[in-house]
Amino acid sequence: MHLRRNIFACAWLSTLNILGLHAAHEHGHVAKALQVSSTLNPLKIYVHNVSSRFRDNKEAWTWIHTSLYGLELTFPEYLLQSPYITSNPEEADYFYVHAWIYNSQFRDMDALIMELKQAGPWWDRKGGKDHIFVLVHDLGLCDNAVGSQPAQAQFGKYLSQSIVLEHWGKPTGVAPNNPCMIFDRWPTECDQVFQMLAYEEKGYRPVPCYTPGKDIVVPTVTSEAPKTTRYLNSDYKNVTQNTLVIFGGGINQTHLTDSSRPESDAGYSFGVRQTFARMYHNHPEIKIFYKMVDDYWIHFHGSVFCLAPAGWGWGARVKSAVTRGCIPVIVQDGIKVDWEDELPMHEFAIRLPFMYLHRLPEILHKYKRIGRAVQMQANLACVWQLFWWTRPHGRAFEMTMCVLKARRDGGQKVQIDFKSCTLKCGNSAAVDFRAAMNLV
């Protein structure tokens, strides 16, 4: 047993040298290891350093690292330099599987799980329930519904019990998206419920894209340029907020002028942005941008609220709004967003059912009139760092550890105090997450 532990320790140190210290040297946005503070029964995570073929992508450290799909590269950087790491799997609370399931050229889930089983008894001991995976696919665990790659078809088979860090918080499965050509075919194909029923009749059993209490919906690693946020760029602090709500993103503009054209490209976004644009493109208090413009962030900071609709898969609009001090208006029926099950979102965001979109200005003006908007903006000034990964300001990694620790300590919920900007993670004392990066 002593020899076996030495082998595991060597593997862990190899991982730290290869991807931890080396990555810290190459990527300046990663600060030195987190400071250790006194805490009761600290969280301990063992890293399964699986074969390098599961991290095989020569372009990973170029564009992927900071792209929408970069979490499975960024997360292990922070983890491997943190005080949560243990080289002894017998004392670990969780096991992180260091594999790039999306960005690697080799995606054989059968081979990955077999390697975990051969490493020791830890996978089989709890059926993988204490193992952590990062999954950045557009539809998370149920991406096999629209994909054909063997690895995607195995997500439900192997990861249905494991902890998945992902961006897509849809608790139900999804059916393949078909063009919604309402003049050419009967439009039940536009309805996700009818689509799911039709596929179940064919023997398809939907896999939940996200399971609350098991998985964690975390922010993306993109949209973190310091110059684009009022919290790090003083040029935006005094921008007058004359706009009620703003949205920037892809919309087919022909829908605004041709009322006979069906919303053939609206399926991926559930029609939210198209409906919003059709209703409000001439509204004097609402700004809509169909592409990026040079002064976009000035307009963005000049708005009190920011629309955060879904795309086909997840997006970064909630994170973009929160980290710029703009109150996100989430219009994503049936889809949970970043930290929604972990933080009291109603304190700094608004969730609006699609059926109330026609009352959007009326509802937002009420939030302003009764003083809720001002309080929400004050709370955003505290909470924004929990949606930001990049050092030295980011605390999204600490928030992830906080959720894991609270769950370990009897399934508790994370507690946040907006006045003191502190987090209470399980049985430990509250920590100020704005200060040095304390052990939660």
Show the helix and strand layout:
Layout: H1 2-26, E1 45-48, H2 71-80, E2 94-97, H3 109-119, H4 122-126, E3 131-134, H5 150-153, H6 155-159, E4 163-166, H7 192-201, E5 216-217, E6 243-248, H8 254-257, H9 272-280, E7 286-289, H10 296-301, E8 303-309, H11 317-322, E9 327-331, E10 350-351, H12 360-369, H13 372-383, H14 396-408, E11 415-417, E12 422-424, E13 431-432
Helix pairs in contact: 1-2
Give a structural overview:
This is Exostosin GT47 domain-containing protein. Belongs to the glycosyltransferase 47 family. Residues 1-23 form the signal peptide. It is found in: Golgi apparatus membrane. With 440 residues, the chain is an alpha/beta fold. It folds into 2 domains: 2-217, no CATH class; 226-376, Rossmann fold (3-Layer(aba) Sandwich), CATH 3.40.50. It has 14 helices and 13 strands. The strands form 3 sheets. It has a 5-stranded parallel beta sheet. Strands 7-6-8-9-10 form a 5-stranded parallel beta sheet. α2 links the parallel β1 and β2 (94-97). α1 (2-26) crosses α2.
Shape: globular
Largest β-sheet summary? 5 strands, parallel
Domain count: the total is 2
Oligomer state of the chains in this structure:
single chain
- Number of DSSP E strands: 13
The level of helicity is: 25-40%
What distance lies between the first and last C-alpha atoms, to the nearest angstrom? Answer: 31 Å
Strand content: 5-15%
Rounded to the nearest angstrom, the radius of gyration is 22 Å
- Helix-strand sequence: HEHEHHEHHEHEEHHEHEHEEHHHEEE
- Low-confidence runs of at least 5 consecutive residues: 1-38, 145-152
Subcellular location: Golgi apparatus membrane
Family: Belongs to the glycosyltransferase 47 family.
Membrane topology: Single-pass type II membrane protein
GO molecular function: glycosyltransferase activity
